[in-house]
């Protein structure tokens, strides 16, 4: 019956509520009079029985005006009490006026006060009763997933209210670090000690833990996630407080736990003057603008209000995508999407001169280690000679600052990609040594989270597909940093360079990849399948190191490192080659690449990058096919 009533149209439901109030109001007045008279009836009131039927005539219009019937029963909140209070109070004043004007002397005056109490109870109580019934029916119609909320602060309470009004999750309990909250109850949910969370999961059959601590640091998030990992229950979290305050997301918009939550490294707030130094009021160009790092650089750059930004990119769709995104992000900034390759010196020079570029961020590069390892000529041409071409064009166009995005793989490289990036550094150092008017700055950092080819999105896809999760070696470790933090540090480092500088970003502690894989499996609510758990869900499989791959990455070649004014940026003191010597190496290497002589190019690369220790399995696929 109730389900049929709930299926009525909105207007029919409003009419039914009005009919209900039209019955409850006379009942409230009758109850008030009978209570006032001690349960007896005064026959003198018989001629005035009409007074019990007329209150709806003025009360219902008052309620309509106050919007009482526009409220949706399922989502009624405490404000409905105020609406009923105002409506009933006005109706009592009208009732008093009617009684006085009609001269109803036998009507007990104190019954009017009692009528106010009964009307409040009947009208308001009926609404909350109906709300409970509607929510109960809704809950039975769509079974909700039981969840535990970690965090009983303001965000946690708001999340609880939002979830109780929804149809997806059913909050079962709170967990909070504050002992003063333990044992307290909010809307029937008790706050518990985090030490009891394993028992709570079993008792409530919770299939999800919601982390509602948007103001907590990443370090605290990491501690909590490490504590919850053993439960093998999926975890979602509220967005950061900055997103909630800005209105970009709502408190009920939950997100998957991200890898930066697992790393637990709190970013250092960027320094505004360093971010703006090479950008504000200037013409800025980004090569590789559609890539992972290049696109984030563009997002950070447009926030600093450049005169214009030149987006230089080889891939048409990537260029289109970042151009469209920036159009939404910063419509006031002039954008110039330019197709081209960094190996085309004439194209680069004409672009930089035509738009009077003042600052260049050179992010274009082939970076996937196994790909470049078997395509060494392409890697050398794009990463090393492409960088040198960009630098030459920058000098010719009078560019003031040129910032190279380098990598930790350039340190004692064991692969072609790392060796080409170190050669790119050497080329810029040589240009600085010649007394170039352009200020060349190089910035090294490790892996960035979420970049194309990164291990993290690969693990996510493999876990979603049921495994196996593949990594190359159980002992392999890597440094990680978020893309926005890396881009901000690159911009700040570029502002600090005097010329020829090699900056190293503080990447925090290295992460063991197999531990990262295990945590990602566990926090997805699954079990790793191994010898101890043969019936687990996801297997972690080691496939062996790939050609040129290191177990451990480094950020410095030598031991010399100097602090800078920024706590996350250090200045490396690295060797560089004399310009004349490097020119000879580049000429020979360029000739080998021009002749597509991969073995000779590879040997020459080893000769110019002294610390390059090539992998034995490295081989150019094209050369192999040609010899075959």
UniProtKB/TrEMBL annotation:
Q: Which UniProt keywords apply?
A: Membrane, Transmembrane, Transmembrane helix
Q: Where does the sequence pass through the membrane?
A: 14-35, 47-68, 80-104, 110-130
**Family annotation (InterPro entries):** NAD(P)-bd_dom_sf (IPR036291), Polysac_CapD-like (IPR003869), Polysaccharide_Synthase-Rel (IPR051203), SAM-dependent_MTases_sf (IPR029063)
Q: Which residues form the Polysaccharide biosynthesis protein CapD-like domain?
A: 284-573
Q: Report any Pfam family annotated for this entry.
A: Polysacc_synt_2
Under the heading PANTHER family, the entry gives: POLYSACCHARIDE BIOSYNTHESIS PROTEIN EPSC-RELATED (PTHR43318:SF1), UDP-N-ACETYLGLUCOSAMINE 4,6-DEHYDRATASE (PTHR43318)
Q: Which family does it belong to?
A: Belongs to the polysaccharide synthase family.
Protein name per its UniProtKB record = Polysaccharide biosynthesis protein
């Amino acid at each position: 019956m109730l389900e049929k009533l709930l299926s009525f149209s909105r207007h029919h439901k409003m009419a039914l509520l009005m009919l209900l109030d039209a019955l409850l109001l006379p009942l409230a007045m009758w109850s008030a009079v009978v209570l006032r008279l001690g349960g007896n009836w005064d026959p003198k009131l018989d001629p005035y029985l009409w007074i019990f039927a007329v209150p709806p005539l003025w009360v219902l219009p008052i309620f309509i005006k106050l919007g009482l019937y526009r409220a949706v029963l399922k989502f009624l909140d405490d404000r409905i009490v105020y609406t009923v209070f105002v409506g009933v109070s006005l109706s009592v004043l009208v009732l008093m006026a009617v009684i006085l004007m009609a001269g109803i002397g036998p009507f007990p005056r104190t019954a009017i006060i009692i009528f106010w109490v009964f009307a409040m109870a009947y009208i308001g109580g009926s609404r909350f009763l109906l709300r409970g019934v509607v929510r109960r029916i809704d809950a039975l119609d769509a079974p909700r997933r039981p969840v535990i909320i970690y965090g009983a602060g303001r965000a946690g309470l708001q999340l609880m209210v939002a979830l109780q009004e929804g149809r997806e999750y059913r909050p079962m309990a709170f967990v909070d670090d504050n002992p003063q909250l333990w044992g307290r109850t909010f809307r029937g949910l008790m706050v518990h000690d985090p030490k009891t969370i394993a028992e709570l999961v079993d008792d409530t059959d919770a299939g999800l833990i919601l982390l509602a601590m948007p103001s907590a640091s990443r370090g605290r998030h990491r501690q909590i996630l490490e504590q919850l990992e053993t439960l093998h229950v999926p975890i979602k979290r509220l967005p950061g407080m900055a997103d909630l305050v800005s209105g970009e997301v709502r408190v009920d918009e939950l997100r998957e736990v991200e890898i930066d939550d697992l790393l637990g490294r709190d970013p250092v707030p960027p320094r505004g003057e360093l971010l703006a130094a090479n950008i504000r009021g200037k013409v800025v160009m980004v090569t590789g603008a559609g890539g992972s790092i290049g696109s984030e650089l563009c997002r950070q750059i447009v926030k600093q209000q450049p005169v214009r930004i030149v987006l230089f990119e080889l891939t048409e769709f990537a260029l289109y995508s970042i151009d469209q995104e920036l159009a939404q992000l910063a419509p006031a900034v002039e954008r110039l999407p330019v197709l081209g390759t960094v190996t085309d010196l004439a194209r680069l020079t004409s672009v930089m001169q035509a738009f009077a570029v003042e600052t260049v961020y050179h992010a274009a590069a082939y970076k996937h280690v196994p790909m470049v390892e078997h395509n060494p000529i392409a890697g050398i041409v794009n990463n090393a000679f492409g960088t040198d071409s960009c630098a030459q064009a920058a000098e010719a166009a009078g560019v003031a600052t040129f910032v190279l995005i380098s990598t930790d793989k350039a340190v004692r490289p064991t692969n072609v990609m790392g060796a080409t990036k170190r050669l790119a550094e050497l080329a810029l150092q040589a240009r600085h040594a010649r007394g170039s008017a352009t200020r060349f700055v190089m910035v090294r950092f490790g892996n960035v989270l979420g970049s194309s080819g990164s291990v993290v999105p690969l693990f996510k896809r493999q876990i979603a597909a049921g495994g196996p999760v593949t990594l190359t070696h159980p002992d392999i470790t890597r440094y990680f940093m978020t893309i926005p933090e890396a881009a901000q540090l690159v911009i700040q480092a570029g502002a600090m360079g005097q010329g020829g500088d090699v900056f190293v970003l503080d990447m925090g502690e290295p992460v063991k990849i197999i531990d990262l894989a295990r945590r990602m499996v566990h926090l997805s609510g699954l079990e790793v399948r191994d010898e101890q758990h043969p019936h687990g869900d996801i297997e972690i499989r080691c496939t062996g190191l790939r050609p040129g791959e290191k177990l451990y990455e480094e950020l410095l070649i030598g031991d010399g490192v100097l602090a800078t004014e920024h706590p996350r940026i250090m200045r490396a003191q690295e060797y560089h080659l004399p310009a004349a010597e490097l020119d000879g190496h580049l000429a020979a290497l360029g000739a080998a690449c021009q002749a597509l002589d991969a073995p000779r190019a590879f040997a020459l690369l080893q000769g110019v990058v002294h610390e390059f220790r090539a992998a034995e399995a490295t081989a150019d696929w094209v050369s192999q096919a040609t010899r075959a």
